[in-house]
Amino acid sequence: MSLWVDKYRPNTLAKLDFHLEQGERLQKMVTKGNFPHLLIYGPPGAGKKTRVSALLRELYGPGVEKLRMEHQNFTTPSNKKIEVMTVASNYHIEVNPNDAGIYDRIVIQEMIKNIAQAQQLDIGGQREFKVVILTEVDKLTKDAQHALRRTMEKYMTTCRLILCANSTSKIIAPLQSRCLAIRVPAPSQDDIIKVLQMVSKKEGITLPADFAIRLAERSERNLRRALLMLEACKVQQYPFSVKQEIVEPDWEVYLRETGQKMVSEQSPKALLEVRGRIYELLSHCIAPEMIIKKLLKEILKNCDGQLKAEVTSMAAYYEHRLCLGSKVIFHIEAFVAKFMAIYKRFLEDSFANMM
Amino acid sequence: MAPTTLLIVESLETLFGHHASQKSQNCCSQGRHSKFFHVDRPEIVEITGFRLGRAYHETCVLKENKSGRCTKEGAVVSASKLKTNAKTPETPLQPVDIGSVFGNKPIQRSKEIPEKRKRTVIEDHSDEDFEATLQQLDEAPVTKKSKVVEKSTSKKGKTDSPTKKEKMKSPAKEEKSKPALHLKMRKHLQKSQPGWNEEKDKRIKSQLKELDSNSNKTSSTPKSNKKMKAETTIVKETPKKKSSKDDDDDDPDVIDSPAFDALEKRKEKAENYRKFLASRRDGGAKNPGSKPVPEGAPGCLTGLTIVVTGVLESLHREEAEGLVKKYGGKAPKAVSKNTSYLLAGDDAGPSKLSKAKDLNVPMLSEDDFLKLIATRPAGQGLSSPAAKKAPTTPRSAHKAAASRKAEPEPPSKPITVSSPPKKKSPEPKKIDLKPQQSSSTAAPIRKAEPISVKMEVAEGNDQAQLPWVDKYKPTSLKQVIGMHGDRSIAKKLVYWLKSWYDNRGKKLAKPSPWSTNDDGAFFKAALLSGPPGIGKTTTAHLAAKELGYDLVEMNASDTRSKRLLHEHVMELLSSQSLSSYAHGSAQIEGGRKRVLVMDEVDGMAGNEDRGGIQELIAMIKTSKIPVVCICNDRQHPKIRSLSNYCYDLKFTKPKIEQVRGAMMSICFKEGLSLKPEALDEIIMGANQDVRQVLHHLSMLASGKKSLSTESAKLEASKSKKDLKLGPWDVVKKVFSAEEHKGMSIHDKTGLFFQDYSFGPLFVQENYPCVVPQAAKGNAIKTLDLLGRTAHCMSQTDLIEKVIRSQNAWSLLPVEAVFASVVPGQLMEGFISSQIVFPSWLGKNSRTNKMDRLLQELQTHMRLKISGSKRAVNLDYLPYVLNSIVGPLKRSGADGVSEAIRAMESYDLMREDLDSLLEVAQWPHKPDIMAGIEGKVKAAFTRAYNKEAHMTPYAAGQVKKGRSKDTADDLEALDGDEDGLAGEEDDEEQSQDPSLDAMIKVKKESKKTASSSSSSGATAAASRKKTGAPAATRGRGRGGRKKAAE
């Protein structure tokens, strides 16, 4: 009894619930036999992986769903052993080179080349190529991405790559140009509601429309989250009431509280407290970009027009810097400290105006 | 041996023309020698023209000259003739018939070789003998005369040929080769005159001795051959003069044996005295500084020769000698006719006393001496002692005559300087002998200590040539600053070393590391640690010296890799020290005790010394000699492993007062007047590093001779030793407004470089705690400054990233500005709370751990979910956890199966649940498992472990150490599970019968669970890796135990 989100995952392109047009196009691509390297990108919870697995099934039939997990070992030039877990069927292999950390280049070079170099013996009844799925490509180091370049061209006949990413901005241009980029946008609110309703029907529960809308809003167009929330709410209280509280993940709550702290008090002591909270968030592996984004969102509720612009540009500035730097906390804290200074002044000014 | 060498040196000079005339006369006057050279000639001719010339010359003198070119009647042998001789070596050779000189007997030499060797040993000792003779003949005011000689000879000195010049320049080398030459000469003698063999030994000796004395004395006389000869006859009533005239046929036996005996006796005495000296070693005072030293008039002791002996009340012997010298007097080590006074303290040398009595030298006590200084008028001439002495000395006439003669001293001085260090010990001895007028009896005393000799040289030249650090190097343990006490480290070390060999026989227990009065008997090695410049190495050396151990030192200048260390020490253990031979001491008693000093062990690093520490430890374990290791950093990780095997002796910095006392006395000796406060400043500035202080003082002394406190303060701050600051201190300095006064931007940058990887972290951690002055308490201003500082830190991070990723280390100064200078400037003020260790390090490792857990979770759930690691963290985590924990919460034990099914559906293992809980737990939130009873938890664990779970991934890497259970488990899988479980429970029961009830409950539930799932389990197991059940099994037991609690 897996969660609904996994239980009702469509496994063929035909069963997709949204982006239908795109689904059709993919299907056509498969049937025509003209299958290039793909770069599938989009926000989390939009259905990238679902589309990829459906595509694979379209290509190879149900046999592709017989998956096995394997550990592959690599040795770096500095004699460090790395272990990478792969998920493979007879027809494809899926790997997240990111698991090897900064040694992802080794994984790309060794493994993918090995796979790509092997020729398919029996061409009849099979596709002449295998598929390699690389996930989180936007987190690959530049070295690894460059290592991928030539491989992609050279072994085109035996191997196709499907790259999954959240954003193309961190993928080098040569890779982008070698792939057919397919954007999987986040589902619209209506799409989400539609899916929620469908799942509810299949589960045999009634979902009030208002509640569905609220769920869709809260999910931030992340279908996965919407479904998880729905299930959590059902567990919490069924039948649903319109006023029912929607269970939020703890980290979100914690992050919001942190934002409120920043607004409520501006002092060195508050700065230290906020720092502690940010450390906590970071140690829970909440992405720093996410932290800044959510903090900003919370802060902006208390800012007027001009201040909003100023704070937002500041957030963007430090978000950029944290991508460039190595110690995330330095930049987030700089943002927090700067904001505190600006906000304190803003408060004083508005207080003076009121008097 | 020495005489020969000297002779050769001189004869070399002869050829060069420096002292051509004198030398030739000199040679002529010694019939003996000429004989030697005759004998030598055939070989020597081949070697150098010089020798040939020399030989030729001799033949001339002896009227054996067949060519008849050189006549003897001329008062001075003309230089030009010598020149021709030298330049055309063949011409004089031809006419000389060897047979005519030596006879035609066959040469026999081989049989005597062992004998010869014996002889060399004896000859070795004749060194002292020679010195004594030399001393006897030595005249005081040599330097002036030598100039004259130079002048007179330079006129004639045109004979130089290039090859000879070379030789002339390195007479020291020649000197060195003296034993060889000597031997060779002897060989030739044998060769040519086999009849000699029986008495050759003695004879040669006496000959040599005489030859020396003669040459020494006469070499400088710029007089004619004849005259010279005449003089020698007067001065020395040895029977050899006759023989010299008589040609070869002399008989040396007459004087030989008694002279030899006396010589032996003297040697013995000298030996005794040296031993005595060695036992006391220092001229330390009984109560140093107990008496005030009066200011005497400058030069008040001029012309006086005062010998200091014994232990004085308030002055070190060196100090007393220093005083004498300071006031223009001379302070030789030995009593001679020229000695004006003998300043005798307790335990004065008996030989000195007796000698003084013999020579009627008046004795002084220390008080008398001080009074003498205080009362004597300035610049008193030589007259009084000289006048007093003149009648008493029987040989004054001779002395006067000799004093007129030139001594080849100046040329010999550079010789000794340029000589290679091998021969060092005899050489300085020789120099300092010369400027002193002392009688032969006390001559061997000079051998006492190389250090004191060195100091004498330095002071004799009235210039500090040695750095002060060496000059005032402690010569006994008592002199080491801070080592006076009975419980001092030095004492401990000495005691440890002394008892080392005894302790090895005993069986000793390792002492507790906290025991304070451990004498280290257990340990085979000692580890001296402490800051630099406080005398660790010196202490080690002196301790070894004090105990008479031979010391083998290896320091950072030696490569100390594993292999080399091994070889070196093996050698050390299986060999014997040569130093006892080299010192000439007769007693060679089965090898002396040895100690290995490993200096600077913390420097044993890098490729060069790979494995050094490990080898050292291994060595210590098996060592048969004590090992003393010395290091600065006791906490170094490498040293830490070593320190387990070492008697830990920690040196601490001496107190300022301790250093001050010693430094004051040095200042006084060097005539540097320095106020104690000023000195304190310098000492503090150097951080009580004695070596540093000495360097600093000597630098000051080279400039002005006095220093006020203020300027000393300035000096001290200028020369302040760069101290290594800990990161805490760095942060304090970065933000403290006080410290910023007088700090340049350079200094502030320097703070960053104290530790550039740690510094920024500390600054970042602590800047919000600073109360900035600039804000003046204004909250907005403070926040503004905070913001700017935070921005700087963000900049720092960017720079650091670039530095690390692109190896752009040249950017470090830029980082320094952003990490230390600008934040310091902005937040200048004081730190309001305690400085905190950067939390980033801990948090970062926690982040990494969480990341690892998440990755594992994601890989385990991978087949069932589509999300990435991040999606798992942000979205799935709470819901998955809820689907597992929820049923347990809602329905307790009944929810167990549901929870397990939830876990199975996501391929999660029991461990994954723990990681899930850890990752999902947030602070200020109640524990997720809080609402669940322990019983339910236990039931859940048990139920989970009961079943074998299928995972798509290899679960083999779960845990180690369970292999023992595998056999049982395999049995259990055959269907005998119930019985086995029962057995196990019985086991537990017997272990802890009080838990009866609970176990029963458990057993029941388990049995039901197992019976319901046994078929499934076996089926599953067949598809499973064998590792999985083992793990399951082990965990099961753990779970039950947990439940029991």
UniProtKB/TrEMBL annotation, chain A:
One of its GO terms (cellular component) is DNA replication factor C complex. Keywords: DNA replication, Nucleus. The keyword Phosphoprotein does not apply. Residues 34-188 form the AAA+ ATPase domain. GO terms for molecular function: ATP-dependent activity, acting on DNA; DNA binding. InterPro entries: AAA+_ATPase (IPR003593), DNA_pol3_clamp-load_cplx_C (IPR008921), DNA_Rep/Repair_Clamp_Loader (IPR050238), P-loop_NTPase (IPR027417). Its main location: nucleus. It is found in: Nucleus. The keyword Transcription does not apply. GO terms for biological process: DNA repair; DNA strand elongation involved in DNA replication; DNA-templated DNA replication. Subunit of the replication factor C (RFC) complex which acts during elongation of primed DNA templates by DNA polymerases delta and epsilon, and is necessary for ATP-dependent loading of proliferating cell nuclear antigen (PCNA) onto primed DNA. Subunit of the RFC complex, an heteropentameric complex consisting of a large subunit RFC1 and four small subunits RFC2, RFC3, RFC4 and RFC5; the RFC complex interacts with PCNA. Forms an heterotetrameric complex with RFC2, RFC4 and RFC5; this complex has ATPase activity but is not stimulated by PCNA. The heterotetramer of subunits RFC2, RFC3, RFC4 and RFC5 interacts with RAD17. Interacts with CNTD1; this interaction facilitates crossover formation. Belongs to the activator 1 small subunits family. This is Replication factor C subunit 3. The lineage of its organism: Eukaryota, Metazoa, Ecdysozoa, Arthropoda, Crustacea.
UniProtKB/TrEMBL annotation, chain B:
Residues 968-990 have a biased composition (Acidic residues). One of its GO terms (molecular function) is ATP binding. Residues 213-223, 1008-1033 have a biased composition (Low complexity). Residues 83-299, 379-447, 955-1045 are annotated as: Disordered. The keyword Oxidoreductase does not apply. It is found in: Nucleus. InterPro entries: AAA+_ATPase, ATPase_AAA_core, BRCT_dom, BRCT_dom_sf, DNA_pol3_clamp-load_cplx_C, DNA_replication_fac_RFC1_C, P-loop_NTPase, RFC1. Pfam families: AAA (PF00004), AAA_lid_RFC1 (PF25361), BRCT (PF00533), RFC1 (PF08519). One of its GO terms (cellular component) is nucleus. It comes from the Eukaryota. Residues 296-376 form the BRCT domain. CDD domains: AAA, BRCT_RFC1, HLD_clamp_RFC. Residues 179-190, 1034-1045 have a biased composition (Basic residues). The keyword DNA-binding applies. Keywords: ATP-binding, DNA replication, DNA-binding, Nucleotide-binding, Nucleus, Phosphoprotein. GO terms for biological process: DNA repair; DNA replication. Residues 109-124, 147-178, 197-212, 262-284, 424-433 have a biased composition (Basic and acidic residues). Belongs to the activator 1 large subunit family. Subunit of the replication factor C (RFC) complex which acts during elongation of primed DNA templates by DNA polymerases delta and epsilon, and is necessary for ATP-dependent loading of proliferating cell nuclear antigen (PCNA) onto primed DNA. This subunit binds to the primer-template junction. Binds the PO-B transcription element as well as other GA rich DNA sequences. Can bind single- or double-stranded DNA. Large subunit of the RFC complex, an heteropentameric complex consisting of RFC1 and four small subunits RFC2, RFC3, RFC4 and RFC5; the RFC complex interacts with PCNA and the interaction involves RFC1. This is Replication factor C subunit 1.
